[in-house]
Amino acid sequence: MSIRQSLIALSLVATALSAVAAGDADKVQSIQLKDGTTVHQYKDGKMAMEGKYGNAVYMQEGVKMETTDGKTITMSGNEVARLFLEKYQANRP
Questions:
Q1: φ and ψ at residue 11, rounded to 5 degrees
Q2: Tens place of pLDDT for every residue, the chain, 93 residues?
Q3: Which regions of the chain does DSSP assign to beta strands (E)?
Q4: What is the separation, in whole angstroms, between the first and last Cα of the chain?
Q5: Dihedral, CA atoms, 22, 23, 25, 27, nearest 10 degrees?
Q6: Alpha carbons 80 and 93: distance in angstroms, whole number
Q7: How far apart are CA 69 and CA 85, in angstroms?
Q8: Which pLDDT score, from 0 to 100, does residue 5 have?
Q9: Sequence-ordered list of residues with C-beta below 8 angstroms from that of 44, at least 6 positions apart, any chain
Q10: Cα distances (angstroms) measured from residue 36 to each of 31, 49, 54, 87
Q11: What's the pTM?
Q12: How far apart are CA 62 and CA 16, in angstroms?
């Protein structure tokens, strides 16, 4: 393997590890919605939606959602990849 290929591989691994390391430490709160889904809010203000069965779900930014206690929140960001990586790392053998 050449030096160039080694550097490319190392940079890809470092990027993946930093995304995984951020994981749950960045979560501020998880909010249950009336339809059974969960919205996770992160320290940077962005959100990710988790479906009824624990999968990462796409949600457009700006959509209003109703919580189980009747409050309305607005989707900010769409961190599908962040949530998917968290779920993947948690379920890895």
A1: -65, -35
A2: 688 776 676 666 666 555 445 455 688 999 999 999 999 999 999 999 999 998 999 999 999 999 999 999 999 999 999 999 998 998 887
A3: 27-32, 38-42, 47-50, 56-57, 64-66, 72-74
A4: 29
A5: 120
A6: 22
A7: 29
A8: 74
A9: 26
A10: 10, 11, 10, 18
A11: 0.69
A12: 28
Assigned CATH class of 3-90? mainly beta
For residue 19, which amino acid is it? A
Q: How far is CA 44 from CA 2, 11, 32, 47, 74, in A?
A: 38, 24, 20, 9, 15
Alpha carbon distance 84, 93 (integer Å): 16
